[in-house]
Design brief:
This protein is of the alpha+beta class. It is built from eight helices and four strands; from the N terminus they run βαββαβαααααα. Helix content is 67%, strand content 11%. A four-stranded antiparallel beta sheet has the order 2-3-1-4.
């Protein structure tokens, strides 16, 4: 058995971890993957040549660099039996708030909430692809990833068009109260996801830090929508809502392209 350490310079959160796991799934020579997200390191336990593994990592364009390969006697790898249950729980929370924010966003005419709902959907896709495709073929996984990525991009483009229509039209002000209240609950939901992930990795500090990194963008977006709601009320203008919506839609498209990498 050999142990190869990679530096993944663009691996900032478990989202990239899932992308890498999906990409390397199916390579029979791999015995185990050990991720150290805060230090951007990936340790691959494998037999035989590393060439195929290195090529697959480089295809993701996440800044993968091989650091070292050494012999190891380690053969016992313990996976968390609760990991799958945790992923389903986090997926459920994210998808539920996608529905809630999309519905209330359309009712309150808030593009900020609609965009944030798509960000929640993007998170659901990342977890869902990993769960739904378990045990499936690589071709099946790539098809699911492609469908999810293009679906996200389509929704985001529709959102951009709607923002432009509202920006140059005479659209009514969004309901700032709904924006603030729903975003506060979304903020709480992200906090619950963070708590659950921390509890599942309570003895592994690296994973706790990784979970904090993972939720930081979602928390910032939630706070952004809350601030936009306050500005809508203060300025009596819908422009702050359109601005935060534009920013989040851009982040959604960026996430969609990451998912599409899995379909290549």
């Amino acid at each position: 058995m050999e142990k190869t350490i990679f530096e993944i310079t663009k691996m900032d959160c478990p989202s990239e971890e899932n992308l890498i796991r999906m990409k390397l799934d199916g390579i029979s020579s791999i015995a185990n993957l050990d991720f150290d997200i805060p230090n951007r390191k990936l340790t691959v336990f494998h037999s035989g040549q590393i060439d195929q593994i290195e090529k697959s990592i480089n295809e993701l364009n996440l800044g993968g660099n091989k650091i070292s390969t050494v012999q190891t006697e380690q053969t016992d790898f313990k996976e968390s039996t609760n990991q799958r249950k945790l992923l389903w729980t986090v997926l459920g929370i994210n998808f539920a708030f996608f529905v809630i924010e999309m519905t209330t966003g359309l009712i309150s005419k808030s593009m900020g909430l609609v965009a944030d709902s798509l960000d929640m959907l993007a998170d659901s896709f990342v977890y869902g692809i990993s769960l739904f495709a378990v045990g499936g073929t690589i071709i099946k996984k790539k098809r699911i990833a492609k469908l999810a990525g293009y679906f996200q991009i389509t929704l985001a483009i529709i959102g951009f068009v709607e923002i432009l229509r509202r920006f140059f039209g005479n659209e009514k002000l969004p309901d700032f109260t709904t924006m603030i209240i729903v975003s506060i609950f979304a903020l709480i939901a992200n906090g619950i996801c963070l708590y659950l992930m921390q509890q599942s990795k309570s003895k592994k500090e690296a994973h706790i830090k990784a979970s904090m990194i993972f939720t930081s963008n979602d928390v910032i977006i939630n706070l952004g929508v809350i601030i936009a709601g306050l500005l809508v009320n203060w300025l009596n203008s819908g422009k702050p809502d359109l601005i935060i919506g534009t920013i989040v839609f851009a982040l959604v498209i960026q996430g969609a392209f990451r998912i599409l990498k899995l379909s290549k």
